[in-house]
Amino acid sequence: MAYPKYPKTFIKKLSIGGKEITVEIGKFTEQASAAVLVTCGETTVHTTIALGRKVDLGYFPMSVEFVEKLYAAGIIKGSRWVKRDGRPSDDVILKARVIDRTLRPLFPEGITNEVQIVNTVFSYDEENDPDMLGLLGSAIGLAVSEIPFDGPVAGLRLGYRKEDGEFMLNPTNTERETSDLDLIVSGRGDAVVMVEAGANEVAEQTIVDALVLAQKELGGICETIEKIVKEVGKDKVELVSDEDRAATKANEELAEKIYAEFAKELRQTVEAQGRLEEVDFDSLRDQILAKLNEGVEDEAEQVTEKEVSKAFNLLSKKEARKMILEDDVRPDGRQTDEIREIWTEVDVFSRTHGSAMFKRGATQAVTVTTLADPTLGQLIEGISGEETRHYIHHYNMPPYASGEAGRMGWPKRREIGHGALAERALVPMLPSQAEFPYTIHVVSEIMSSNGSTSQASVCGSTMSLMAAGVPIKRPVAGIAMGLMSDGKKYVVLSDIQGLEDHVGDMDFKIAGSEEGITAIQMDIKLKGIPQKVLEQALEQARAGRLHILKEMLKTISEPRTQLSPFAPKVAQIEIPADKIGELIGPGGKMIKSLIEETGAEINVDEDEEREVGIVNISSSDQDKIDAAKQRISDMMRVIEVGDEFDGTVTRVEGYGAFVEFLPGREGLVHISEMSTDRVENVEDVAKLGDTVHVRVNEIKDDGKIGLSMLSAEEGEQKKSRQGGDRRGGDRGGRSRGRFNDRRGGGRGNSRGRRDGFRMRRDD
After folding, report:
1. How many helices (H) and strands (E) does the chain have?
2. Using one digit for the tens of pLDDT, what is the confidence trace for 308-331?
3. Can you give the pTM of this predicted structure?
4. In terms of Cα–Cα distance, which of 343, 567, 349 is closest to 460?
């Protein structure tokens, strides 16, 4: 491997969206094919490109990793026992996928060398997201490395605010909080390669405007990358050998021979594949082999089954494209804007909280919704700190969905990506925690796969949520658009199936409501798409989306007003933040007591921004929830002089009785406030456990409550009767209280005596 031409450290600065980005090459990792350090603000990402050995796996063995180190944000892992950074979160995997989907289409066909791209976040300032820096570093690294690459390429994020119609280039995390669009675009000045977006019902034209703006900005970034390559780039090496090229040419020549003899049979095979009819490939292959090897006696010169299979795959792709571009016929016989037949159903399973099935053609998804207490939200620990998510969407596609046998177990990156896309499409339509205080777990199980399973998941999940009684704002549907082009003619296809996705030039997934787009994912194989074609695809997708929504609403038109009898019931109330400690009690004594007495599950979280406590109460029994709500409301009630309660005597002393008049709230009924007549012994009037009616007589500065068993009128009459003789009565009461205190002893009794003394003096 040749040593790099650049000096020890090469530094280049560029500006994106008014934010300065510093690129350093050569500072670290000199043995890799390329190593790039990219910094924006105080966020730094280190990207390495490594070229490995040649392997024959039947596909390009590139891997992209994104590594977020907790130390980058000054965080130590929360686990008490494990402090090493763990497996990547779903969010980190999605960042790696964005980079992978950007770069993979730009490698020359035929490369079988391992290529590994690793992006490590070394510093994070909580404002500048590292994913776009990793994408830029990866693109620059490949451009300056010796690896063949059809670059340069770049990526950026755009935000958009509906209220002022302004776009934001590479917005900070703070700016993204007010944005109605989170759009990532990869490409260059003459082409868009990859698009990923979540949106709050944004109009189609806004998406077009955003892509045009992004493409213009990407052109400028790519010009800067070209300048960097001229200064420090390595010479590209040849990774596709002459033997590989010869094999490719031989395969093409063999395909032409097969097509000349079997064009009719090939057409019938592609049509059958489009209709998912069973095809006897073995019989056709045998016919082809017999024809091609007719008269060839030397086995070394005969065509093999493997060669015929490779040529047949090439021919199937060419024939499918020819049918669409030249004959205006789709493999399954549909029109270009026609949606496959739709079948929907809700309440598929009896004991689940919500379930639905969505089937479009041979693509079928079953989605199950589960509701739970907010405390069962998912805790995410990353460089942005800890976050609890109350909506989780998972997507599973087992091997049987495509009629195959294969590995079962943890999800692949593709499954994580599809689940995240469906989740992104539905998040803008979900109610807030204040409106619907539940953790919502949605799982999409793909039962059959023939194109656009992620969008089938969006549709099925919408119906499942409505069946579960989740009050979503509006239903959401999704559709996958395709494109065929020969460079002159463009054909936009609605609702593409698996074959069209495989042989086409674009996979454009769009989800949204009647009001606008909520999620986009687009991968393009072409070097450029005219703006009018993009606009046509978006408008055609809108028409298809509305058609699908109409079919869905025939089965369930709105969210149910009642939850499943098997779903837990959850109520949420707010309390002042300074009352949280009072509700919990010392060592959790009070909240444990409430849980035991009411039978409901009670949890408290603090909303620091609004300075309130959020109390979540859950149970399958509504009466238990109501009881807990009442108890907590009573505890948090603001007490005023004159309020009356029925309370329980919790302690009896010589000077009076302590009464719990609200849960966790006690006051003292002094012996002088127990009756209009003189009381010699407290227990003659109030015994431990008695229920007595009391009135708030006094609220002291220290929060202690003075109670009375007399009405306001009786109290005034007693004061008038005592008149000038109050001094002697007080003395007698005090001496009796002191005598009983001495007998009882202890600090608690002495405090009680002082309380009694003050109350008599005030009286």
Report:
1. 17, 29
2. 888 888 888 888 998 999 888 899
3. 0.82
4. 343
